[in-house]
Write a structure and sequence with these properties.
The protein is an alpha/beta fold. It contains twelve helices and 16 strands.
Length: 374
Amino acid sequence: MSSGNVENLTFSKPSLNKPHVLFVTSNGAGMGHITRCMAIAHSGSEDFHASFVTLSSSAEVIAQQGFEYLHFASSGTTGQPARIWNNNFYQFFNELTRKNHFDAVVFDGTWIYRGLRDILVKKPDLKLVWLRRGLWKKSASIDQLPEMEAYCAQILTPWDIGDRLDEGALSQRKAQTQVRGIVLSNGALFSRESALEELRLAPDRNYALVQLGAGNINDISDIRQKVTTAIRVQSNGSVIPVIASSPLSNHEQSDANSISLRRYPISPYLRAFDFVVSAAGYNSIHEIIKWDVPSLVIPNLNASTDDQKTRADALCDDIKHFTALSDIEIDTSIGALLGWSENREQSTKQVAGYLKFIDNGDEAARAISETIRL
């Protein structure tokens, strides 16, 4: 059930007596789990050696970022009942920890799998750090959390712009330690000219990036069509929609009047676009903040635990960021963004003030290193 760029389940050993940290990510509907962990792995590279186990079908991006990984097919992918899948995951993890020494496991996911918890009982010296995104919906069940938290040496929650409006299921829990928000930015941010050249987009045209996700939670093709049509009509064809195809998507997400683009990570190229139309997932929103790109945010209300509406509302208190839940709001917001793009000299200080709460995973990497030393 496993694959990857590692032979015989044996990862390369750390050099210079570095600790070995295994990042384990759930499959997820988006790229958040993998992206956060890779940001931390890059930032902590001087202090620990990082390897990955992921359930995500986009596992190959880990190798593209220079890390060894193993992919273990999720319960949803295999069609196995949870009990059987957890037993198989336990056997896999048991063999993995027999062949490799890990000083800590960093798990990024909503629920810690039973197969992993059973290994921690068998290996009490193996420290578990739970990297747990906050901003859960009010409706999310937290009954299992005390049991899961008991397995953890540390629980880290990255800062979220929606925290100040958070009244959800996790908002009153005190078990976690907050670290700065995490954005993967181990490379340079290209200038507009360089970004357009890298993406092979004509330099004499204007573009809007549309990144509404992979469509794994619900069908987003209709809303994507409404967005691209609104951009073309309201700009009289002067702004071309560019649809970002997620690494999790098996098909190109485009139509006859837009351009499809598959690039991960997309954030280094954001200067190529006049504005972004985005879902309100953790990664996308905080990349928009870090790189100060005007945006229309369309929260996905069907996410199981992630309160995307609250995150969108928090961002859209700023005058160059908008949110929409209806066709009319989409049209109005895109019209406002088109007007904004004609007045780029305007700026606001509100979003810039949030930058002190965001880094490349540095603070989380330091917290993991400190947990290992303890």
